[in-house]
Amino acid sequence: VKQTQQWLALHQAYSPSRTDEDCAATYDKSFAAVTGKISASIVHVIGLGCGGGQKDTRLLSLLKAQGKEILYTPSDVSASMVLVARQAALAAVSEQNCFPLVCDLASAGDLRSVFEENNLGTATCRPSQNAARLVTFFGMIPNFEPEMILPKLASLVGPEDFLLFSANLAPGHDYAAGVKHILPLYDNALTRDWLLTFLLDLGVERADGELRFAIEDASHGLKRIVARFHFFRTREIQIENDRFSFRAGESVRLFFSYRHTPELVRRLLLQQGLNVADEWITKSKEEGVFLCQRKTAVALRKGR
């Protein structure tokens, strides 16, 4: 709960969707566009990594205004965050059509079966031929390894379904310079407090070391920002029956965030059989929203 409160404060202070009017408008343009593209009368919105649910709720409100029957599954690794998103969404979705799901995407190997076999939010939706699924994934893709998360997202997108997600971008034509330019969005007091809470609650003391941010090369030609706590002195941590020992000079990674370019996003999605049907890039070039469909579905609509 403490980390949830800190994350919400951090998001309010530094997220472009809160600090940049053009960014908020960019999201709203994408919401209006996808609402116009969905012809189905029943829509199941699955908000993976829902956070506080503000973006999902704006999208749900547009779908409601179009007369759609809406089902909503807010999902996050944090139970408290899921409850925050659920409360926000009830302004647009009825309580009986809201299916909160606590889920660790990093370890979930059965994401598709959760919705298909367990009928989570699909009992009303899937029997009808006039139904569609809309998966949202806002601000989350930078914090997962591409080879792990993209197949899971793709598995939820059927021929008539949509994936709408956002990616943090490196601005400018020089990829490396663009990543360096946005480093202060991470290396700041609020982010440090949020990340250190995890270690401090386990018994690590601030004097045991320091948190350092760096830029590193990763797979698929991507670069990412990494935060590691570097120990100045030995510290042992006891978690239930497990004991962890860190020596001076060792470090533990607390966070990483990939920075993409629109070209890299399209290439990675295409490898999963997904086409970018439309995209919206902020004027700052630091954030983009991408609407994706199954490659076969896009090809059929274009008559290919």
Could you give a short description of this structure?
Helix content is 36%, strand content 28%. The chain has 304 residues and is α/β, with parallel strands linked by helices. The strands form three sheets. It has a seven-stranded mixed β-sheet.
Features:
304 residues, alpha/beta, 7-stranded mixed beta sheet, 3-stranded antiparallel beta sheet, 12 strands
Describe the fold and architecture.
Strand 6 and strand 7 form a beta hairpin. Helices cover 36% and strands 28% of the residues. Helix 1 runs antiparallel to helix 9. The radius of gyration is 20 Å and the shape is globular. The N and C termini lie far apart (50 Å). It contains eleven helices and twelve strands. The chain is of the alpha/beta class and 304 residues long.
Question: How would you summarize the topology of this molecule?
Answer:
Layout: H1 2-14, H2 16-19, H3 21-37, E1 42-48, H4 54-65, E2 69-76, H5 79-89, E3 101-102, H6 111-116, E4 131-137, H7 146-155, E5 162-168, H8 175-181, H9 189-201, E6 209-217, E7 223-231, E8 235-239, E9 242-246, E10 251-259, H10 262-270, E11 274-281, E12 287-294, H11 295-301
Parallel strand pairs: 1-2, 1-4, 2-3, 4-5
Antiparallel strand pairs: 5-12, 6-7, 7-10, 8-9, 11-12
Helix pairs in contact: 1-9, 3-4
